[in-house]
Amino acid sequence: MIKQQRSWSVAFRRLGVALGASALLPSAFLAGYIWIFGAPESAITPHLWVVASLVSALAGLRLAIGLLPLPQAARLTISSLLIACTGLAMVLFYGLVFVGLKHWKRVTTFDMAGSYALQAPDLLRALGYSPLLVTALCASLFALAWYTAYVFLRKGDWVTSFYRNISRSVIGVMAIGLLAISTVSAMALPDRDWGGLGEPLSLSLFPSQSQRAMQSHAIDVFHAAQIDRDEDAVRSAYRPNEKARHSNVIVIVADALRADHLSLFGYHRKTSPNLEALNQAGRMRLATSAITVCNESSCGLRALASSHYVDRQAAHPITLHEVLKQHGYQVHLIFSGDHTNFDGLSGIYGKVDSYFDGASQSKLYLNDDRLITDRLQDFGPWDGKPTMFQFHLMSSHALGKRFDDTPEFGPGENYTAVRWGSGDAQMPQRATNFYDRGILQADRVIHDILGMLESRGYLRDALVLITGDHGESLGERGLYSHTHSVWEESLRVPFVLLSYGSAEAGRLRPNPVISQIDIAPTLLRLLDMPLPRSWSGVPLQASTQSRLVYFQQAQLIGLIDGRTPRKLHKHWIDGQTNKQYTFDLLSDPREAVNVNSEVEQSLQEEWRKLLTNRSAALTPEVRERLERQSSRGTAH
After folding, report:
1. Rounded Cα–Cα distance for residues 66 and 159 (Å)
2. Which of 46, 183, 314, 556 has its CA 20 to 30 A from that of 534?
3. Cβ-count burial of 362 within 10 angstroms (0-12 exposed, 13-18 middle, 19+ buried)?
4. pTM here?
5. DSSP 3-state of 615
């Protein structure tokens, strides 16, 4: 009896050690998930339940393996392989969650991870890593994990202890019961709606469960539903103009394209020779810059399509593409990059005649802009019907494929992994060299696209818009890449308009207070088409400097105010730290001197109220903080 009790004690002690070991990784992950990346604490309980279900499945399988008629060494080998695969899968998933939060401010979805997994070698090369070396490293880590698990099980496996004390039939029932519990839990996961609590697996599998997610931003589901209803009402009331002009519309968006790095705008390097040639040929009707609504693709592309700031971006807005469709246009979207799995970007444009992006194929790396010209080869001569093309280029993005024959500006290095700064004093220059090479390549791809369209007749009567979805940091203030700031280099993109053939560009009035949301209204006004009444942008035909435009990136929310004579104020608030920044862009375009203390209190209070009203896409905590600040300002 004493011997059996001792045996049971050993069995449960070993089980306790196994359970304790299995809890270490999820606990460490949750600590970083909440304390470093700011996830809600409500994610803890549901995620621990998910982990418990996984442990239950693993335990059931371990018990079932013990029933197999195999030598003990073979059972230990299979069990250790199972443990190693489970552990590394968890490490991989947790790593992808952190990568997504760091680079895109959202949990990486399974669809997105799968899309990039198919392109892993090209992605690794784009980041500057050897696929062979990474594969060897992963294989070594797996071998180490397996060997560690094998040694651990040989020294004391709780399953072996259970088989010494319980009949095989009872163990079989236990295995079936544990597997049944984990299966039922997995089947119920879609209906639990744990994404709204921040549980990472649910957000990865079912990203729509959270608030209306838009990369770094989210809109409360009730507010989002009202926006959608408003957009549907505008859609129902919209009436096309039967006398509108029907020039073809070509929209070319280069990802992460900064205006100040184009030689067209005076940059010291020859990064845009083809655009300059178009200017010299008299094609260019407008060459200026615009401020984006945010510092990332999701809200930037939505703003281009639907002329809305972040807080009014609906799931199904009435878009430029939809308006053109109502006026009889064919609409074709040809994108490099994965828009299908990245934040649902492929669905924001409405019904189109054809859609293609990098995730639609497996021939080339999904961020290779040769996909665009290859796809364009499938289009025959223009049939005379009004047509819109929108292209999305990745050459200027850090993850974009650089062609071997694209000249370099000096030693370059992909800066994606640096992001928050580096102690290497040469890193900004290497990052700039790498980025400028991408812009030079984007300029070449634009030239190729226009050449192909011209040879097919699409440019006989066409308006061509060239812009970016957001800016990019290249070491300024220790920052790299995007999704993290609202400095000028992060927000200012080109706004270039060309006209071909009989297309008329009219009289445009560029000024320093132009927003990304003004682009679609400007195009419609050029075509004599009514603007949807919900749009927030102003066509440049009527634009004046005496206006405000807004921008936002996560908790950073601000505006540019052109109403004060001889001043161009840029004011923004960090909703997390309560810090306020004000710059006069006319005298200080590089934003070196914060003049917030010099601005009249009444103007600051007005700005705070305006920004509070624009903060619907902030987290509830940050919005509440802004509202408290606004209340205090009113009391003063």
Report:
1. 7
2. 556
3. exposed
4. 0.83
5. helix
∠ CA 140-145-147, nearest 5°, is: 95
Report in angstroms the alpha-carbon separations of 43 from 48, 195, 208, 491.
9, 8, 16, 33
Separation CA 435–CA 269 (nearest Å): 12
Are the C-beta atoms of 554 and 215 separated by less than 8 Å? no
Q: How far apart are CA 402 and CA 405, in angstroms?
A: 8
Q: Which of 95, 86, 98, 372 is nearest to 252 (CA)?
A: 372
Tens digit of each residue's pLDDT (9 = 90 or more) over 332-356:
999 999 988 876 778 888 899 999 9
pLDDT of residue 76: 86
Structure tokens at 317: 């807005």
Considering Cα of 165, then 169, then 170, then 176, what sign does the dihedral take? positive
* Cα–Cα distances in angstroms (integers) from residue 559 to residues 550, 566, 610, 622, in the given order: 4, 17, 9, 17
Q: And the tokens for 385?
A: 């019907």
Q: Do the beta carbons of residue 587 and residue 611 sit within 8 Å?
A: no
The three state secondary structure string of 161-229 is: HHHHHCCHHHHHHHHHHHHHHHHHHHHHHHHHCHHHHCCHHHHHHCHHHCCEEECCEEECHHHHHHHHH
- Contacts for 232 with CB less than 8 Å, ≥ 6 apart: 316
Of 152-166, 302-316, 479-493, 519-533, least confident by mean pLDDT is: 152-166
* Tokens of residue 349, six digits: 């444009």
User: Could you report the per-residue pLDDT of 28-76, keeping only the tens digit for each?
Assistant: 999 998 888 877 788 899 999 999 999 899 888 988 888 888 888 888 8
Place of tokens 């997994």: 117
Would you state the torsion angle of the CA atoms of residues 425, 593, 262, 289, taken in this order, to the nearest 10 degrees?
Answer: 150
